[in-house]
């Protein structure tokens, strides 16, 4: 049996391998913006669950002297996942967030300069590439990228008409949300 949560985990593994090798990422690691503690558990990290569960897990990690450095950047797969099954094919509609810590005092310009451009955008691009290259997934339309909606979320929180007004996360975060990501995969037993 295939499990989409594990399949997306494999995509994140491939993203991690490539992202850590980028010269720009190495510069972020050398400057201390991205912290890598050990080779067993390197960023970007991966979690799946409901937003509140992910927030609680991140809060618990934040209280641990070692685990607090193993939270961001994070690629999170949000549950519940609609899966339409047609014969041996499953059609999924996924919601994913690519998240990194930020500073609450940052302006929008500073968030783009310090978080979105050097960290979130490269992870988004690699995620889309590895989703295509991992194999087993397909989608209708343009085969470069599956249909989806991408939303930049400076100060990731609860959206309102005038920006995000609160956050379920304890840390100040910036994020790219990928919603309504439509992919298909053959079911294997």
Number of domains: 1
Mean pLDDT across every amino acid position: 89
Subunit organisation of the chains:
single chain
Rg computed from alpha carbons, rounded to a whole number of angstroms: 17 Å
Q: Give the H and E element order.
A: HHEHEEEHEEEEE
Helix segment tally: 4
Q: What's the count of strands? A: 9
Alpha carbon gap, first and last residue: 4 Å
Note poorly predicted spans: none
Outline, from the CA principal axes?
globular
β-sheet strand percentage: 25-35%
**Content-based structural category:** alpha+beta
Largest β sheet strand count, sense and barrel closure: 7 strands, mixed
Helix content: 25-40%
Descriptive notes:
The protein is α+β, with helices and mostly antiparallel strands and 189 residues long. The chain has one domain (4-186). It has helices at 4-19, 23-31, 51-62, 108-133; strands at 45-49, 74-78, 83-86, 89-101, 137-138, 149-153, 158-160, 163-166, 173-186. The strands form two sheets. Strands 1, 2, 3, 4, 5, 6 and 9 form a seven-stranded mixed sheet that branches. Helix 1 packs across helix 4.
Key structural traits:
single chain, 189 residues, alpha+beta, 7-stranded mixed beta sheet, two-stranded antiparallel sheet, 4 helices
